[in-house]
Amino acid sequence: MRQLTLPFTTAVTLKPDPVPHPFSHDGLCCEDARLDMEIRYAHLLEETDLFSRRVVSFQANKTETLHSWIKYREGFSAQLVETLLAELGIQPGQTILDPFAGSCTTLLEAKMWGIHAVGIELLPHCHLAWQVKANAFEYNVDELVQIRQQVQQQTPPPTTTTFPHLTITESAFPLDTERELMAYSHWFAEQDMSANARLLCQAILMSLLEEVSYTRKDGQYLRWDGRAAKIKQRNEQRLQQGKDPIQGIHKGSLPTVKQAFLRHLNRVIQDVSELQKQPPPASQQTVLEGSALNILPALEPDQFEGVITSPPYANRYDYTRTYALELAYLNVGDAIFHLRQQMLSCTVENKPKLNPLQEFYSSLDREAEYIEILNLVQTNSVLNEINQALHIRNQEGDVNNQGVLGMIDQYFTELTFIFAELFRVCRSGAHVAIVNDNVRYAGEVIPVDFLSTNLAETLGFEPVKVYVLPQQKGNSSQQMGKFGRRPLRKSITIWRKP
Predict the structure, then answer these.
(1) pLDDT of the residue at 313
(2) 236 lies in a domain?
(3) Does residue 192 lie in a domain region?
(4) What's the CATH code of the domain at 411?
(5) How many Cβ atoms are within 10 Å of 158's Cβ, its own excluded?
(6) pLDDT at position 481, please?
(7) Which one of 5, 130, 333, 346 has the largest count of C-beta atoms within 10 Å of its C-beta?
(8) How confident is the model at residue 17, as a pLDDT?
């Protein structure tokens, strides 16, 4: 059986600056608690060539066997997971957890190494991605080759079934493309093939939606090609109002659904053929559907040897908008609004979850624990300083959306409940690795890595280290224009349960 080992690396421990960088632009707001915390945890910082921005994002997965099948921009790479499994000393037969599973890179890597794993994920398109990738060793290659030949040689008949658009996806495709897409979708549903192959065909169609559309994923939203009817209609209205038209992007010539499907299927066939030459050791992986806030409290305690995860960042990205095409294709309909509110509070539209969370803990006869966790986060001096600073910035007119104030407070409150449950469900000696970004709003730096570590320590975790990427990220161009550029850490925090 293969053993997980760390690659050759040169690690350099960072020496803290005698005077940490200021957290509040021009010293407008109190930053004492943040500065004290920076000094207290500075010895944990470690810069290493184990990691890069490419490795802690999906970029490195674009060419990876299996992982590249479904594009998930917010995920991290297989290389990162493999490195962390070795770093945390996780061995075959042990069990790890990823409470924000996304496209399930953690679980897939665990499968490759014979490690048991449990994931938690809210969004339906991620569950479909997991199902088809987890089936990689079950596919009949001859059947996949036959499907490829059918697609090459035959044209599916037209269907009256229309794409189940959401309001925000209307006119996302050229008319002929949308008809072709639905024709193939209906055709695959009717073909004589195995259930696994049919699911794979559905997932491939889902994975190519952006490619054949007038849209492009771009952080908080979808960017639109100027040829889309939505943009044309909007520009007609703007011209009537005497406003300049929206330029939109131009994606160039779009592939047909058939062209894109065959390209994706060819990659799958190639990967499956290689993977099945060396099946992994037996192990079990399970993905639970729902919010980690509701699933973790119901899990049995002391069962995991490690956690590798990356929660949604506090960057206002709304995954239900970014993946609107995929969710529409899976016919989520109005349920998208419920999904948006169930997500960890990382967007300005998220409403507080404390009342339903308290009711849930009460139903588990754990209300006392709920009160204890809530008190811990509400009395945290650093979070209180950040909240106060954002309110002052709002009064100064520096906050461009007041929803940011609630979002930040809710984000760390909800994360504290997550951290508390991770402590409960992990075994003694287990390590937790969390990938996250520091953020800045209205000239106020929010040290997500150290604040998370501080909250985790008050819950009982021992801080071990904070890996820092050599390449720090910058803040938004809007903030740089008003408050100047402030490099922000992208970090991997490591904690241990005693």
Answers:
(1) 93
(2) no
(3) no
(4) 3.40.50.150
(5) 11
(6) 64
(7) 130
(8) 57
pLDDT in tens, 412-421: 999 999 999 9
The residue ranges of the chain whose pLDDT is under 50 are 1, 6-10, 55, 57, 59-62
- CA quadruple 19, 21, 23, 25: dihedral sign: positive
Instruction: Please give the Cα distance from 391 to 51 (Å, whole number).
Output: 36
CA distance 181 to 189: 13
Q: Which of 73, 70, 75 is nearest to 121 (CA)?
A: 75
Give the residue numbers spanning the domain of 116: 11-122+288-314+348-496
- Confidence (pLDDT) at 60: 46
Read off φ and ψ for residue 187, nearest 5 degrees.
Answer: -65, -50
288 phi, psi to nearest 5 deg? -95, 135
Give the residue from 40, 100, 127, 44 showing the smallest Cα distance to 421: 100
Q: Distance (Å, rounded) from C-alpha 384 to C-alpha 405?
A: 12
Q: How many domains does the chain have?
A: 1
* pTM > 0.85: yes
The answer to whether 287 and 119 have CB atoms below 8 angstroms apart is yes
- Asked if residue 438 lies in contact with residue 488, where contact means CB atoms within 8 angstroms, the answer is yes
The amino acid at 276: Q
In the chain, the amino acid numbered 435 is V
Q: Is 323 helix (H, G, I), strand (E, B) or coil?
A: coil
List, for residues 59-93, the tens digit of each pLDDT value: 444 457 788 888 776 667 888 899 999 999 999 99
Q: Which residues pair with 466 in a beta bridge?
A: 45, 493
Contacts 24+ apart (CB under 8 A), 182-190: 183/156, 183/157, 183/158, 183/159, 184/156, 184/257, 184/258, 184/261, 185/161, 186/156, 186/159, 186/161, 187/156, 187/157, 187/159
Instruction: Evaluate whether residue 131 is within a structural domain.
Output: no
**331 falls within a domain:** no
- Confirm if 50 and 9 have CB atoms less than 8 A apart: yes
